[in-house]
Amino acid sequence: MLTLYPAIDIRDGRAVRLTQGRADAETVYGEDPVEVARGFAATGTGWLHVVDLDAAFTGEPRNRHLIEAIVAETGCRVQASGGVRTLEDVEASLTYGAERVVIGTMALTDPGFVEQVLDRVGPRIAVGLDARGTTLQARGWTEEAGDLFEALERFTTMGVPRFVYTDVAKDGMLQGPNIEMLQQVADATTAAVTASGGVSSLADLERLATCHDRVDAAIVGKALYSGAFTLTEALAATRSPA
Fold first, then answer.
1. Distance in angstroms (rounded) separating the CA atoms of residues 86 and 103
2. Contact 15/9 with Cβ under 8 angstroms?
3. At CA 43, angle to CA 37 and CA 46, rounded to 5?
4. Residues with catalytic roles
5. Is the dihedral of CA 23, 29, 32, 33 positive or negative?
6. What residues does 100 pair with on adjacent strands?
7. Counting Cβ atoms within 10 Å, is residue 137 exposed (0-12), middle (13-18) or buried (19+)?
8. Contact (Cβ atoms closer than 8 angstroms) between residue 226 and residue 203
9. Beta bridge partners of 102
């Protein structure tokens, strides 16, 4: 069984999608992210993956209030991501109603920060590992940030409960996920792994659902917005609970 996280990426208050994380490769999918979230919730999804792109690109968290609105309007659990730089950023997202916060660049540039967050909020975090091959990418995929498997070992030892793994070459390309690398990532940790990037079909989701016991969730974005399949079809294909 695979839990689906429909993605809502927010920039300038609008729901958008980027191709390979590029700020100059943006497609607007909705003026109101809350309305997009309401549509996903109507299908029975239990989780949403909400990314504050403004915070990610500029360090200025402009969209946290939308987490509160999305939770209030949908009742869904929210996994929040984007621009997490301080402990206050983590706590603010949780205060606004996020169930889990994903730490990306800060985890790679300051691993001790993850220890601090674990001490403060416990298992309500995940570490985002975005990689090109085995080389981690940070700061919007503009800088190299070490070896993927060394990071997996380090953060697993710390007690990180979940990793969000993205093959950046696949993100937004609708070419299918990197199943082989996902399996290697899952083999290298005892934590849960969320797959991100590349899902293009229901067959991709079915492959993810059976590729490894620790790969128990997938973030789906562009395939939903482009109409490759509906969320109703995806939930049925993966038997994901509401």
1. 10
2. yes
3. 70
4. 9, 130
5. negative
6. 79
7. buried
8. no
9. 126
Q: Which residues pair with 220 in a beta bridge?
A: 6
Picking from 133, 140, 141, 130, the residue whose alpha carbon sits closest to that of residue 196 is: 130
Q: How far from each other are the two terminal CA atoms of the chain, in whole angstroms? A: 12
Q: How far apart (Å, rounded) are the C-alpha atoms in residues 210 and 176? A: 15
Output the domain CATH number for residue 138. 3.20.20.70
Cα angle, residue 171 at apex, residues 86 and 123 outer, rounded to 5°: 35
**Cα separation values, 77 from 15, 49, 213, Å:** 18, 9, 22
Q: How many domains does the chain have?
A: 1
Indicate the pTM of the whole model: 0.89
Q: Domain residues for 39?
A: 3-238
Predicted confidence (pLDDT) per residue in 24-81, tens digit = 444 555 578 999 999 999 999 999 999 988 877 777 777 888 999 999 999 999 999 9
> Which run of H or of E encompasses 195?
strand 192-196
Q: Which ranges of the chain would DSSP assign to H, the alpha helix?
A: 33-41, 53-58, 64-74, 87-95, 105-109, 111-121, 148-158, 179-187, 202-211, 222-225, 231-238
Hey, which residues does 54 pair with through a beta bridge? none
Closest C-alpha to 222, from 2, 9, 4, 3: 9
As a whole number of angstroms, the distance between CA 180 and CA 164 comes to: 16
pLDDT at 214 over 50: yes
Spatial distance between the Cα atoms of 183 and 27, rounded to a whole number of angstroms: 31
Neighbouring C-beta atoms of residue 239, cutoff 10 Å: 10
Nearest to 87 by CA among 101, 71, 68, 66: 101
